[in-house]
Amino acid sequence: MIRRLQIKLITTAMLSLALVLAVIFGIVALRSFRTVASNADEILDILAENEGQFPDTDIAAYMDGGELWSFSNYNYEEIPYESRYFSVMLTKDGGALSADLGQIAAVDETDAMDYAHTVLDGGRERGFIEGYRYIVQTLDDGAVRIIFLDCGRLLSTYRLGLFTTVVVTVAGLAAVLLVMMLLSKRIIRPIVESYEKQRRFITDAGHEIKTPLTIIDADAEVLAMELGEENEWLLDIQTQTHRLTELTKSLIFLSRMQEDVGQEQMIDFPVSDVVSETAQSFQSLAKTQDKVLMCQVQPLLTLRGDEKGVRQLVSILLDNALKYSPQGGVILLTLGKAGKANLQLSVENPAPNLTKKDMEHMFDRFYRGDESHNSQTGGYGIGLSIAKAIVSAQRGRIAAASRENGNLVITITLPGLVTESPQKGE
Fold this sequence. Notes:
about 425 residues, 5-stranded antiparallel beta sheet, about 55% helix
């Protein structure tokens, strides 16, 4: 249990931290990229307004007292000398007119025309192509001027920043994971201690209650013998004593199951025969209740697991299905292979009054739907909790689902399917 709690705590903490860091990283990355694009667009706007060249006046004067917000405290006079750009003129049909490559050396006329046609085919007014930011400008005569600004260094710095952030984030997550692994046991210790105290109380109290219950039951039998006739009140005492005894045994069993997880004796046994025999013992009970119990058991299956636990598991599921099925209902038990090494057991029964709340609390202790709180069904709402504990002890999975026809299906998957048993005489 401690191990499972540690894993859940570490997993939850790491996923939460990773999600928060991912959101922060995404916001920072998007903000940085927009800054690069905004800086480039402001320079491209100046070039577009001056036919692909910087104006003769300094940039600050050209902006008429404004400023390029992302270049705070920047020497604007250096921008024309630090910017590498080129422009291409095309006809409205895409024909080449001219290319101005005077401010860049890494691009020849052929490359410039290829870039221009690619941009024109894309149909966007602004964007990035490789390491260049561009703007498309339609002139009065229908010609098109496309101006490209080299943003290679800015984009390289942006990518380097992202890479550094990713490395630092991963290193931080690794450090937090290490700290969580070292401290998780101490963090969950109060929860474990509280759980252990609860479990010990249930076990100890259960054993203490069993003795007076045994005495009460014995005294009731003696009184019944002395009276010599059936007494309503005495019969009620015996009935309630038996119910309380069964509840005590169930609580002790559930407590021991959670305590001894992983200590069950795993053996190879004919699970098909075990399930069929257990289901057969419920046939007469189903008939007396005017219900139909159908079994579809794949024969000759062998499982490595806890035979006693599987018998009890089938009994709990069938008992639950019979209790809560309406008169005339059909209960279907199926057993078969699920993959190469798994066994699948399912029990389906009518449950017309099943609610969403019932589905959510199906395996909670002492939970019973409103329709089941009556003297006819009996039970304590602990059977499916025990079933879940048995399945968990064998490293299996249990799930409940509601079909469109109103039927409840409880499906169990158990690992450890050995092989199909050989035919007799082979």
